[in-house]
Amino acid sequence: MNKSHLIKLATLAGMLGPVFFAAVVTGLTIAEADFMRTLGWDPLGPVIDWPSGLAMGPYGWVMTLTFFVCGGMMAFFAYGLKLALKDKLATTLMMLAGFTMMGMVFTSQPTIGRGPYTWHGFLHDAFFAVLGFTLMPGMLLLGRVFQKNDQWRNLAIYTWGTLALIIPTFWLKGVAFYVFLVAILVWSEVIAFRLKSTQ
């Protein structure tokens, strides 16, 4: 498979991944709303154990599979960016972020009334933390890569602005986490469509 074809497939993954993730999380949140409330989740109040808690519900296998599939799509999309932009460091960090999202298949534990820390709960939380520590530096460096490229330059400030928005919201359990999720999914779509337009 040649480079151009790989980039096109990676672009498709970048375009479909965020939409698929958003659709699954929205659908499961509606389907498992009663269960999520038993964990302390409130759509307009404490956003506890969301969306990870969806994997603990009656249709949890769907969320688990989504973490794996969307993480893989994210990593493949980052690989396409690596080929197109001829960058190593920033895109490798983005690939690692995708791989760590795949690692979130290990089921989390309820925040309220949690018993002894289980190995799978520990691994889920660890992969979530590593996701932040790879995604955010990756975006910071990617903005610099964009700034040096005529076809991408106008997305540098947008990337850094999105980063400034997601840094605090990523670590919060409240309604602000919705902001993180929307901002990063929209940013991913914008970058994917730009990659498509450059090919």
Describe this structure in words.
The protein is mainly alpha-helical. It has one domain. About 70% of the residues lie in helices and about 0% in strands. Helix 1 packs antiparallel against helix 7, helix 3 runs antiparallel to helix 4 and helix 6 packs antiparallel against helix 7. The longest helix is centred in the N-terminal third of the chain and has 29 residues. It is elongated. The model has no long low-confidence stretch (mean pLDDT about 95).
Task: Summarize this entry quickly.
With 199 residues, this protein is mainly alpha-helical.
Shape: elongated
What are the secondary-structure elements, in order, as H or E?
HHHHHHH
Major β-sheet profile: none
Taking pLDDT < 50 over at least 5 consecutive residues as the criterion, the unreliable ranges are: none
How many domains make up the coordinates? Answer: 1
Strand content: under 5%
**Strand pairing plus helix content: what structural class?**
mainly alpha
Structure annotation, total helices: 7
Q: Note the gap between the termini.
A: 16 Å
Mean pLDDT: 93
User: What is the helical fraction, as a range of percent?
Assistant: over 70%
Total beta strand runs: 0
Rg over alpha carbons: 17 Å
